[in-house]
Design a protein that fits this description.
With about 290 residues, this protein is α/β, with parallel strands linked by helices. It folds into 2 domains: about 190 residues, Vaccinia Virus protein VP39 (Rossmann fold, 3-Layer(aba) Sandwich), CATH 3.40.50; about 80 residues, Orthogonal Bundle (Adenine-specific Methyltransferase, domain 2), CATH 1.10.1020. Helix content is about 35%, strand content about 15%. It contains 9 helices and 10 strands. Strands 1-9-10-6-5-2-3-4 form an 8-stranded mixed β-sheet, sandwiched between helices. Strands 7-8 form a two-stranded antiparallel sheet. Strand 7 and strand 8 form a beta hairpin. Helix 3 crosses helix 4 and helix 3 crosses helix 6.
């Protein structure tokens, strides 16, 4: 079987980094989003991101027309509120921040987490992402949150509000939809661009729905998109397994035309780099597969 040649990162276009996170999410691509976007087609059509997560790539790209989607309702509540009512997003954060400042931090954190677990919602999820340990929310198999409180204080409401204003401008051309990836990708047409950063398949249970996700299903949908002329990019952790496999799943021959490698401080598994490591040895490798 012919193996895709793994190339070093050689950008197709020059893209400036965008570092300001709105939402902390396990495996987010904020640090390398500009590298990923640099491989987008220069004259791409509408942009689709069906595994939205932190929205790092979408915000870095800042498309004129785009669709961000996920099938996780509390997450999409955050993005839909950012688009429709940015001030509501600021209010959610401020209310919980003030509650934490007026009490014992870890205790208030656990109260907010317990409230989320009883009734999952975007407001709690947003604040917990900024106040949880290591900035990586972890979910149990039943969908409940398990992450402990961070030792560090979350950013101030004023700092968060500035990020909301910045992000609101960058995503103003986007719609945010609660959709399964297959339904979202079916909306794309010839010339459009789809970036896929699916949940890990290692069974770690760090992201909601990861246990039900199957790469074979995604490959099947990518094949359909490719056949109608849609440009598709797929990210995954290149340290798991090299060559024609992602984990234990074989990449269908001929599905992708090329591949590049980009550096990352963390992988989709949500495991952070070792503290103090800044060398190549402390970096994770991400593979980026392209159908064009």
């Amino acid at each position: 079987m012919k193996q895709l040649k793994l190339l070093d990162h050689v950008p197709d276009n020059d893209v400036k980094p965008f570092r300001r996170q709105l939402l902390k999410w396990s495996g987010n691509k904020q640090r390398i989003a500009h590298e990923i976007v640099s491989h987008f087609p220069e004259k791409g059509g509408k942009y689709f991101e069906p595994f939205l997560g932190s929205g790092a790539v979408l915000a870095t790209y800042a498309p004129e027309k785009g669709v961000g989607s996920d099938n996780f309702r509390p997450l999409m509540e955050i993005w839909q509120t950012l688009k429709k009512s940015p001030r509501t997003l600021m209010k959610w954060y401020t209310e919980r921040w003030e509650k934490m400042k007026s009490g014992e931090k870890a205790e208030v954190y656990e109260e907010i987490k317990a409230h989320y677990n009883r009734s999952p919602n975007g407001g709690d999820l947003l604040f917990l992402s900024h106040s949880c340990s290591e900035g990586a929310l972890r979910f149990r198999a039943d969908g409940s949150l398990s992450t402990l409180s961070s030792l560090h204080d979350p950013i101030s409401p004023e700092a968060f509000a500035k990020r909301v204003v910045l992000w609101s401008e960058r995503v103003k051309g986007c719609d945010f939809l609660l959709l399964d990836f297959e339904d979202a990708m079916s909306l794309a047409k010839a010339g459009d661009v789809i970036y896929c950063d699916p949940p890990g398949t290692g069974g770690l249970g760090l992201l909601p729905g990861a246990g039900d996700f199957r790469l074979q299903d995604l490959f099947r949908v990518i094949e359909k998109c490719k056949a109608k002329g849609t440009h598709v990019l797929l990210s995954f952790d290149g340290t798991k397994k090299s060559g024609n496999f992602i984990g234990d799943t074989e990449i269908p021959p001929g599905l992708f035309k090329r591949e590049v490698s980009v550096n990352s401080d963390s992988s989709r598994s949500g495991i952070p780099r070792t503290k103090g490591k800044t060398s190549e040895a402390g970096m994770g490798k991400n593979r980026l597969l392209l159908t064009y």
